[in-house]
Amino acid sequence: MPARVFSIANQKGGTGKTTLSMNFAAGLSKRGKVLVIDADPQGSAGQWSSLAPDHRLFPVSVISIGGNLAREAERFIKDYDFLVIDCPPTLETEIMKLAMKISDVILIPVLPSPIDLWASMRLVDIIEQAKITNSKLKPYIVVNQLEPRSALSRAMKQALAEFNIPALKDGIRRRAIYRNSALEGASVYCMGKRGEAAVKEIDEIIKEIL
Ligand SMILES: Nc1ncnc2c1ncn2[C@@H]1O[C@H](COP(=O)(O)OP(=O)(O)OP(=O)(O)O)[C@@H](O)[C@H]1O
Ligand SMILES: [Mg+2]
């Protein structure tokens, strides 16, 4: 079976692409062989995994591909069950085009404000374009950095409802463990009791899209 390919994309910076990529990949690793492809020249995913002293803290291989995704993609798709592509915060690269071409799912992390959501509007057009040649492509919004104990604002709910891309039922809360685990090169899955609530929400996301 060829790998299922997930791209984590948003041209807006700092919305949680790398955080979601790494934790999502760690969660998937319980279900098959996973490779994280760091497609961002900033190299955050690669740096993250290089902080981990061994595979117990981050049980997934990360490869930084620079511009070579096209050449390697076929081999990765044959060799793995899941590929997770951590995309750069820009739309104007060949890597983004290729990611859209080979992906089954695009996860778009957004911050919980309508202004942030609107900033991702252009991505909608690009996904629509990509669907012409890749009809299997399924995009989902993932609301990130939700404030504990406060519901989504009415404005945000309305903006989500008007957006052409469905939002996953469960988002990701703002939790210190997401920052702290990254500092240790770990996923939230390796943080014991402190990571439990975060693990639960990442598992919910995985369940909803698999
Ligand atoms: N749910 C969360 N709770 C707490 N902190 C978070 C959460 N999600 C992301 N962060 C923090 O927010 C910052 C930005 O996240 P991240 O690097 O994952 O975003 P990004 O979209 O990959 O950024 P870039 O566009 O630069 O690649 C990081 O410091 C990260 O630790
Ligand atoms: Mg990033």
Report on this structure.
This protein is of the alpha/beta class and 210 residues long. It has one domain (4-209): Rossmann fold. The chain is 42% helix and 15% strand. The protein has nine helices and six strands, in the order E-H-E-H-E-H-E-H-E-H-H-E-H-H-H. The chain has helices at residues 17-28, 44-51, 69-79, 94-102, 114-118, 121-133, 154-162, 176-183, 196-209; strands at residues 4-8, 34-38, 61-64, 82-86, 105-110, 138-143. Strands 3-2-4-1-5-6 form a six-stranded parallel beta sheet, with helices on both faces. Helix 1 (17-28) packs across helix 9.
List the helices and strands and how they pair.
Layout: E1 4-8, H1 17-28, E2 34-38, H2 44-51, E3 61-64, H3 69-79, E4 82-86, H4 94-102, E5 105-110, H5 114-118, H6 121-133, E6 138-143, H7 154-162, H8 176-183, H9 196-209
Parallel strand pairs: 1-4, 1-5, 2-3, 2-4, 5-6
Short description:
This protein is of the alpha/beta class and 210 residues long.
From the structure above, extract its key features.
9 helices; 6-stranded parallel β-sheet; Rossmann fold; 6 strands; globular; 42% helix
**Overall outline:** globular
Terminal Cα span:
15 Å
* CATH architectural grouping: 3-Layer(aba) Sandwich
CATH topology tier name: Rossmann fold
Computed CA radius of gyration, to the nearest angstrom? 16 Å
Main sheet record: 6 strands, parallel
Amount of beta strand: 5-15%
Number of helices: 9
Mean of all residue-level pLDDT scores? 92
| CATH level 1 name | Alpha Beta
